[in-house]
Amino acid sequence: EVAYNFMIIEVREEAAPAVERRADGSVILRKLAGDCEASGWTGEVERREVPAGEVEGETHFIGGMGAGSFTYRFAVSEGMDLAALRSLKLLLEASSKREGAPQTSEDKWPSDITISVNGVAVDARTLPDQPADARGALSHLHGLWGRYGELVSAEASREKLAEIAQANGRELFVTVSVADDASHVGGLSIYSSRAGRYPADVTLVLA
């Protein structure tokens, strides 16, 4: 038997808007984990493992084994000129992807990821593991066995912003990938606001 010595409570008024304009002129764009434009993996792609993993008809967890990528498409409003961007920041919760959800231990499962916007690489890092324990409260609540990731924040440099704007003036394609020749080919899991540890969607902040 499994016993819990804690209770998980989700306090939520409504979903964060897909597009949010702020008084300082910045624009925030959000996507759910399952709302990817394209994906391809050398291993299994997992959108959910149990019915509770889909929360009220929305997919807040997606994972791919081995090497591959997930791509998210963000449309840019008519009033925004990508060539005039001063900053572009990406925020998302991510981990590697291992089979099942073994309890967090010293047995790590790392994965090397690259984050690109319109084909321009803006960040690269190693995700150390796919942990699963009490800190993954949102996953526990919605049937994903406590799995969670780390909060990844990536920002494009001024030089990269110019390349991104030249590649596509009306859309932003954010790709998170694991190369097949990476040092750690450990797959990728992406969580949005009702899975994992942090109540955050895949988020772009444009100024």
Question: Keyphrases for this structure?
Answer:
single chain, 207 residues, mainly beta, 8-stranded antiparallel beta sheet, 5-stranded antiparallel beta sheet, 2 helices
Supply the helix-strand structural class.
mainly beta
Helix and strand sequence: EEEEEEEEEEEHEHEEE
SS field, number of helical segments = 2
Radius of gyration: 17 Å
As a percent range, the share of helical residues equals under 10%
The main pleated sheet reads as: 8 strands, antiparallel
| Mean residue pLDDT | 90
Low-confidence stretches: 48-53
- General form: globular
Quantity of strands, as a count: 15
Distance between the termini: 51 Å
Percent range for β-strand residues: 35-45%
Question: Any chance you could write out the topology, listing elements then pairs?
Answer:
Blueprint: E1 19-21, E2 27-31, E3 38-41, E4 45-46, E5 54-55, E6 58-59, E7 61-64, E8 68-75, E9 88-95, E10 111-117, E11 120-127, H1 137-141, E12 150-155, H2 158-167, E13 171-178, E14 188-191, E15 202-206
Antiparallel strand pairs: 1-2, 2-15, 3-8, 4-7, 5-6, 7-14, 8-13, 9-12, 9-14, 9-15, 10-11, 10-13
Detailed description of the structure:
7% of the residues lie in helices and 37% in strands. It is built from two helices and 15 strands. It has helices spanning 137-141, 158-167; strands spanning 19-21, 27-31, 38-41, 45-46, 54-55, 58-59, 61-64, 68-75, 88-95, 111-117, 120-127, 150-155, 171-178, 188-191, 202-206. The strands form three sheets. Strands 1, 2, 4, 7, 9, 12, 14 and 15 form an eight-stranded antiparallel β-sheet that branches. Strands 3-8-13-10-11 form a five-stranded antiparallel β-sheet. Strands 5-6 form a two-stranded antiparallel ribbon. Strand 5 (54-55) and strand 6 form a beta hairpin.
